[in-house]
Amino acid sequence: VSPAQPNLNPGQVDPAQPTPNPGQLNPGQPSPAERAGPPGGARTDATDVPSLQQPLALGELVGKPIVRIDVAALGDRWVIVSPVTSVELGEPLSHDAARRAMRELLASGNFARASAEAYLLPDGAALRIAVVPRRLIATIQIAGGALDRQNTLEAAGIAENGEITAAALAEIGPRVRAFYAEHGYPAAAVTVRAVDTDDRSQILLALDIEAGAPRVVSQRVFVADPRAHRELGSLKERYGLGVGARVDEPALAEADREMTELLRRSGFHDAEVSHRVLAVGPNNYLYVYLDPGARIVPAFDGNRAFDDDALEDALGLGETTETKPDDLADRLTAFYVARGFLDAKVTPSLGGEPDDPVRYLTFTIREHEQVRVTKRVFPCLTGELSPDDLGREIESFLEEDLPGADAFSMPDPRGISDLFGPTRGAGGRAKPVELIPAMTYAQETYERALKHLRDLYFSKGYLNAVVGPVSVLRATCSRRSPPGACIPEPVTERVTAQCRTDALGLPLPEPPVPAALTCRPDPARHIACAPEVTLRIPVHPGPQTRLYDLAFEGNKGFCGQPGLSERDRDFCAEERPFSERWLSEVADLKVGQPLSTLDLDAARLRILDAYRDLGYAFAEVRTAIEPSPDRTRARARFIVSERDRVMVTGIVVKGAVRTDEQLILRRVLLREGAPFRQSQARLSEERIATLGPFSSVSISLEDPEVPQKNKRVIIHVVEQLPQYLNPQIGFSTGEGVRFAFEYGHRNIGGLAIGLTMRVQLSYLFEFMVVDPAARRHYHELDDDDQLERRNTIAVTLPDIGLGPLVSLSLSGIDVRDNQLDFGFTKQALIPALTYRPRRAITTQLAVSTELNDVGFFQGAVGTEKRDILNQLRMPEGRTIALAQRIDASWDTRDTPFAATRGFLLSGGVEHVDAFDVFASGESQSDFPESHFLRFTGRVSGYIPLARRGPVLALSLSGGYIHPLVANSGTYPDRLFFMGGVDSLRSHLAESLYPADGLEEARDALSKNQDPEDDDVQISTDDIPRGGTVMVNPRAELRIPLTDLLQLGIFLDAGNLWIRAKNVNLDPRLLRYGLGAGLRVNTPIGPLAFDYGFNLAPREELDEIDGALHFSVGLF
């Protein structure tokens, strides 16, 4: 630079410097002319992270005063720059001064990169900073286009909230055009516009894409060896793309890969598939090159215990592409070993020539005899665990990993012949394979079981326990043994437990078992082994370690930091968090107790959760055990790496295409400027999920793998389809054939307002009505009344301004239902307010306005039934009812349809006022008004008796109706009924007569008859079946048979009473149903087929001896 060049103001761009064209340089790199500075010049670079490389030598520039500072923006966009203030004129030139200038410019957020140059001037040195301007992309708008938006943005290398430079802006168009050409749009046109916004640091990026005409396949041609065409058959037609498909190279490559896998699964183990597209004028010819190789057909020789089909299933050729002969042989060997054939050997042999279209892969199998584990010994075992305890732990792994006998298996035909005959001339019979996992030795399964035993001992404080290895003790058969029998050879060597310890008293591994005690069969040397083995598993627990102290390291905490919120200040004042005392309470480890590794890890997780709940999202907690020399005591040390407390700088919702983002954000507990608390994030996920339109919700930090003090929170939601149609057809023994049609909208107006309209019709055929009286009543009904219906329309509003825990629903229903004694029609409008403070806890307040029409079926004695109903205060006719109901439930079950653990506690109370305002005429009862309270409750518990084993289900439910006025009646649809799958399975649905029903009906008739007439005739048709008091205890044992089938053994009990004064809870007076059933597991819940026996049928009521039930789901 000439010394005569005029001086420039700080921050002014040198007009003599050439301006590079957009795209000429990589972003942030100067041109060759700029890199060639004056003699003696030096250059350094700056990025967001300072470079750790050796700085460039400044030479004669060191210490020269800075007399000039230039800032040059590269590119033709956003060239406005700011002056440098962190470096003053006259300051000595140094690397630090250059870095300060670059960091100041980068900190403004307007530049992506910066580089610095220095050169001599007559009176000092000049510092020149070259910067690459950038902008943040606030929004991306894509107009037109035919391909996926996200894939298009990834191909363009842009994203919302990402940065862009002038050079990168110029590359967007070519990248998108190349992306479209690759996917079959060779003539795509792309226009890119960057529009400035009110914020100078952000732009709106607009992409206008005209895809043009797609390039499609005109003809598909398969190219293969003529001999292979016959073997391929119709398989080649399953190639993914055909005529009319777009010439999409990634899709074609995926179709090649899928076709290759299909051929390999179909027996062509060496198949290769490729393609080529040839354009001839306007036509595009797709050539698919199929090189299937030989079709490999498996064959088996020497298999006696299992047929070819079972062995082919074991190979799994249709499910895997790993088809090397040795791998397949190993798979067959593992199949045999898992079924007790410990000595099985499988040798593969591939026949034929490489050019043959079909080759046979023959597996020669030497099965040997099935081997049984008859005994397990545990030398050196001491302590609280017995050999039986260890055996049960091992067998739990064997039962899980190894195949067992099916619920229905083939018996031994020789035993059947011996039992039923004939005993002579029956011929030879093959013995079926008996699968007993507990008596099978599989090395991999035992290794897993022994690792579990070590963990079990560690969890009990035996931190130096030595478990294993397993030694197989097996006798060698004498050559004098007769066929089918084994006479053991005498053994001179013996193995005894050493149980050695080191100088500190810690256990040492046992020496290996002598080879003479572990027979290995060798047919070539005529060595045969006994079919029974003993497993020797050394278990030396060693000393038990007890916890005597807790220590914490790295727990600094935040209470001394400035700017704490009022909540944090109160928390610090009351709890003194991160002190050793506070952390000890969080860890909840008891000093003096055995030091359990499981408890130690659980304490570590509790401490980690405590940190993350206070905003330390990137905290780490490690544990170390510091034992005493004799290993009887130990200190548990927690090493904490707190890192920075993470503060929320923004909350972004992603995936909410149809849903209002503000609706989602109102349910988020996290706030900008506040710490990111893990518990608040999880609770926010639950609250957002209750809106309804989403199939999944997750809340996480942006770039969760990168620790940073200030982070944005990203809410990812996946929306379901907003509308759905769901036709259903069903059948049950109580309702007959059922048809339902449901339409729903999950997200009206983007406000998560749900709309459900459902029409359900059911028809019960007369031959399905078992009760004679009910069949007669049903036959006398009109066709319209025989057709039962339940039509509903419901609107759900998840946000009504009362917070995210409260929702409102408004339902309208139209019901026609036929019971054994009566039929009723109801139209109702039901608004309900639901409050759900926790996932397991739900409360609801509902108000119902109903139009009811109830009609009792006439009894066998004619009008006498009306007299009974009047005396028992059971009205009928048309009424308007106003009801208010409060319900609450606490549900911790793992699944509502077939629970295996947890409990359910629920209860409710309903207040009903019913009035007859229609003057129903002759059918009008003597009780035109009803005013009562209806109480219900249920408690259920589920106890697993073994892992993946039987489950005991217990339930107790009850109900009581309390009249509020003396003459109040109870409408029959509010009465309690028993019988059926939901209560007493020894009776048909809702068919149980109340315990006092016969006496109450007789008393009611006697009041209207001549006092001198002692003969009061009562028919079962005249006795109403509902009651005002109900109790129903139930117990059921659910035993899994297979993954599909389950056996249930149940005992149901309970009773009904019409009047509360007659209640007698003496267990001897309850009604009992004992029975069993088979359950079939399905994705929608178990299908249950149950039969219950009536243990004490009442002959005076013509009760049946039992009932068969079918249902979906269990209580």
Give me the CATH superfamily of the largest domain. Answer: membrane protein fhac: a member of the omp85/tpsb transporter family
> CATH fold name of the largest domain, please?
Porin
Secondary structure: helix percent: 10-25%
Globular, elongated, flat, extended or rod-shaped: what is the shape?
globular
Mean pLDDT: 84
For the biggest β-sheet, the strand order reads 25-26-27-28-29-30-31-32-33-34-35-36-37-38-39-40
The structural class is alpha+beta
Largest sheet: 16 strands, antiparallel
CATH architecture of the largest domain: Beta Barrel
> End-to-end span in angstroms?
91 Å
Q: C-alpha Rg, in Å?
A: 41 Å
Strand content: 25-35%
Can you put this structure into words, describing what you see?
Pfam families: Omp85, POTRA. InterPro entries: Bac_surfAg_D15 (IPR000184), BamA/TamA_POTRA (IPR010827), D15-like (IPR039910), POTRA (IPR034746). The protein folds into eight domains: 32-134, Ubiquitin-like (UB roll); 138-210, Ubiquitin-like (UB roll); 219-291, Ubiquitin-like (UB roll), CATH 3.10.20.310; 295-366, Ubiquitin-like (UB roll); 372-407 and 434-490 and 504-540, no CATH class; 546-641, Ubiquitin-like (UB roll) (Roll); 647-719, membrane protein fhac (Ubiquitin-like (UB roll), Roll), CATH 3.10.20.310; 725-1112, membrane protein fhac: a member of the omp85/tpsb transporter family (Porin, Beta Barrel), CATH 2.40.160.50. The protein is built from 20 helices and 40 strands. The model is unreliable at 1-52 (pLDDT under 50). Strands 25-26-27-28-29-30-31-32-33-34-35-36-37-38-39-40 form a 16-stranded antiparallel β-sheet. Strands 1, 2, 3, 4, 5, 6 and 7 form a seven-stranded mixed β-sheet that branches. A three-stranded mixed β-sheet has the order 8-10-9, with helices on one face. 19% of the residues lie in helices and 34% in strands. By secondary structure, the chain is of the alpha+beta class.
